[in-house]
Every structure is written in C-alpha cells, then in structure tokens.
Structure prediction request, 316 residues.
Amino acid sequence: MIRVKNGVAIHGGVGTIPADDMTADMAAAYRETLRQSLLAGHAALQGGGSSVDAVAEAVAVMEDSPLFNAGRGSNLDEHGVVTMDASIMRGSDLDAGAIAGVTDVRNPITLARLVMERSPHLFLIGGGAEAFARAQGIPSTENSWFHTERRIAELHRARERGGARPAEVLGDVNPIDQAGTVGAVAIDASGTLAAATSTGGMANKTAGRVGDSPIIGAGTYASDLCAVSCTGWGEYFIRNAAAFDVHARMRHAGVSLDAATHGVIFETLGAQVPRSGGMVAMDAHGHVDFCFNTPGMYRGWVNEHGTVSVGIYAGD
Ligand code: ASP
Prediction:
C-alpha cells in the first residue's frame, strides 16, 4: 500500500475515456494536469501549509483545467447552465465548508473554503452562496466561461438519452461523454488530514439537482482516522453516506483503510448498481487507497519528496 508522510492524493473522476478511444495526446494531457495538481498540493505542504491548503490548491488546478468536470469544463444542466458544487473538510476538528448550485465562481473549492473559514455556517447554496462570494471579494465569472464544446456535446447526447445518469453506468458510452468530478485528500506535518471535492454534477441534470460532492459524509469526509473524496453516481453515494461509512467502518469495526473503502465501493455501492464509482482515501498514517468499481479513475499521489505517480485505468 502506498504511504506518504506529508503528501497528497487526488482523483479526477471515474468517467475515464475507454482505453480503446484514448489517444496518446489525450492521455498525456490528463496525466500532465494530474501531475500539476499534485505538485500544487505538494508545494503548499512544502511551504509549511496545512492539509487544507494542499487539497484546496490541488483541486483548484483541476477546476481550472477544461479536461475535468469541475470549474471550467463542468457539465451543463437541462437548461444549458453550469451549476457547481464543492466541499472541503479538516479532520482534526471536523470543520467543513460546502457550496452548491453556484453559477459564477471560477474556483468553487475556494468558496467552500471561505464558507468554512469566514462564515458561521457550513453549507451555502445558489444565490446566497454567490452573494457571499461577492462579499468575500470573489468576482463574478460569466457562466459561458465554464462552457466547453465537449460538455455542450455531452449535454446534447444526454438529452437524446433522456436522462442524467452517468454514461459509464448505463453503458451508453461515447468516448468523451464521461463525468470527471475532482477531489483530493492530504496529510500535513502535524498529522492533520483534509479532504476536498468539486464538480459540475451530471450532464442534463434537472435544474436544482445536487449530488454527493458537496455533502459532508456523502462525497467528502475527513476525521482523525481518514480523509475521503468520492466520485460516481451521486445519488447512491448520498443514500449510503459513502464517505462517512469509510470512517464509520474504521472507527466501529476497527478495519483498515483499504478494507473500509473496499466494503463501501464493492459490497455496498457495487451491490446496488454496477460501476457506481470510486474514491480516494488516506488514513492517519498516510496510507493512500484508490478504490473504484469502474474501468478506471483518473488519479495520483505525491509524497514528501515530491515523487509523483499518476494513473488512469485499473491496471495502471
Ligand atoms: N458524483 C458526482 C455527482 O453525482 C458526479 C461525478 O463524480 O462525476 O454529482
């Protein structure tokens, strides 16, 4: 099992482009962005930053990339609007921040962090979250800035399919249809764990739909035992309190990190719906686990020496 002392692990979603359709250029672009994300998290930790700094920096790099379904490049809802969800949590004191349904904030993870640090609340949505962003000095970004040709095409295909389920679950695969929520977990020099997740949700989602990503305990969780960020079919992750269940299994059943993630992803979620998703998780010893019941998950880790490893498919 991978172990880091002062390190970061990330995912860029389970909706990997099928291996047969993945060009060398596309794979290289994904790998390079994952690497940049990890290096940003590593730089934060090396500079004496906290695990919260590291996960926020790592996620922001993937939000800025049009490759992933978060920030720029997010999926569009049924009206062709990008609405984004994000959350962040610190394991040492269970402090957390979350936002949902935000249309004009370039880095949703930054706003989630500000909710955690500068508001008396934990979760802000829609217009209220956007007003809070303005009050915190975050400028408004035109919704069209988040749109990419790839996601517009995915919206059209999702409309034709008549649903908002992730293509990889339906098996109705177009090579570039897939979701790509992003997330990170980290441990810092003080041993504090943190987790963060950011998404545009599902293509053609009903206006107002919120997935698991901003829900503490569903898409994101951090405690003294573990940090978890999920990706996949959000409704199932919410029903099963997936991220919290990793913590609960470790706390109450005394199992290891990988036994806990395996139980949640394969025994609970996998039994309910095939290819439902995955997660990146880290324990208080810095063990890293990537667990997914899909053909792949964009992912990677960096340790205290700056050694980086990235992967896309199950065998990588
Ligand atoms: N979990 C996300 C959601 O349901 C989608 C994803 O992981 O790509 O909104």
User: Anything to note?
Assistant: The domain at 2-313 is CATH 3.60.20.30 (Glutamine Phosphoribosylpyrophosphate, subunit 1, domain 1).
